[in-house]
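[audit] Reproducing an earlier prediction to check determinism. Same input, same settings, fresh worker. If the tokens differ from the archived copy the diff job will pick it up downstream; this log only records the rerun itself.
[audit] input (192 residues):
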Amino acid sequence: MKLKHSLLLTASTLFIFLSANSHAGREGVNAYYGLGLGAAAPQSIDILGYFDLDFDPTANMEIILGIEEDGWALEAIASRSIDAGTNLSVLDYNLQTLDLGIGYRTIEKNNRYYKFKYSKTDVDIQLDASGTTATAETEGNSLSFGMGFRMDREERMEVDITYHDNDATKEPIYFVNLRYIWGGAPYHGTAF
């Protein structure tokens, strides 16, 4: 058997195994939506190779849309942060992100589950110096790990930590988010 066939067989077996042990448990395709609040901590950015900017942490708001089946989900998240400062007192910044990814939720036990997600993320860093703005558009990959809690039959809350790496910032951007989600696979355990 060729290497590519072995890898295809291994990947297919892994995906079938994960789907057979997912939270959704043959629920079919379900859509969900949600809102989130969080914090972003960009480390530093190199502007045209001339100087480095160090960023203060900032708060952000999110809108979430997703489609899931058998624990797998395609998820889109748009967010925007509030203005925050930099190491230059005359320069503020904010972040605007668009995140498209594939995630997996584990089996729900005791009203809890874990979530893993890989995504492609565009992060626009808007710099504002006394009314003059400039935007650094970046794109990169994000890895997320989170824990979810069942709040009601079709409602859940998730806490995520995201590591985002791109080509413009020298160091990764970290996000911590609290999300409230409606819809998705309904809970079939004990009544609330």
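[audit] rerun output stored. Observation attached for the diff report: The mean pLDDT is 82.
[audit] end
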